[in-house]
Amino acid sequence: MCNQITLKASVDEVASHFKAQRKKQTNASSGDVWKGGTGFIVREVADERQLDAMVWGFPRHSTNKKTGKPNKPTHVNNARDDKLMSPYNMWREWFVQPGQRCLIPITAFAEAVGPEGQMTRTWISIADQPLAACAGFWRPTDEWGDSYTMVMVDAVPKMLEVHDRMPVILHPEDHEAWLHAPAEEAMKLVTQYPADRLVVDHTPELWYAGRTRKDPAPTAATLL
Fold first, then answer.
1. What is the dihedral sign for C-alpha 133, 108, 3, 39?
2. Which of 28, 47, 62, 84 has a CA that sits 20 to 30 A from residue 157's CA?
3. What is the value of pTM for the model shown?
């Protein structure tokens, strides 16, 4: 599961790379994004690509077992590939609509590795795409405004020492299809990225270190 991504490119560079217009001004900036934080997505609006800032994670509601009262909504930031078409899951309604799919620009994503309390950060970047896009989709919410989630698949063997799941990293030639194709065709793009193009960088940086005060408190990634 992916709980942190980074975008080491300026907003203008991202817009230019993905041939997107930046219609709405925002205080959001490129850099690290955690679950529940605000990041950038590229979507299609009125036949034009648009770069927008949204909250990472769909709202999930639950009830407190002790009090019977609603808990505070949590962010569901990762969507399982095998749940996208399920009529009994929260994803299908949004995934099957091409207009709700989006590109999630990244330069790398991170995973926590090691025992609880001693976890360190491992970064995974894409050798042939210094600026890449993960497959995602978005929806409007009452809780946080527009929000997005990232699609996940089983990890390639090279990644298993880091995590057993990984984001769907799209090939540039598949961006248009992800944004426009019917659901059955879009599902064909939900695959592993070639292992020989992934760069795994284990660092000694503690997983909970280096966060800014504006970031939400770190929690485990949610994958449904």
1. negative
2. 84
3. 0.90
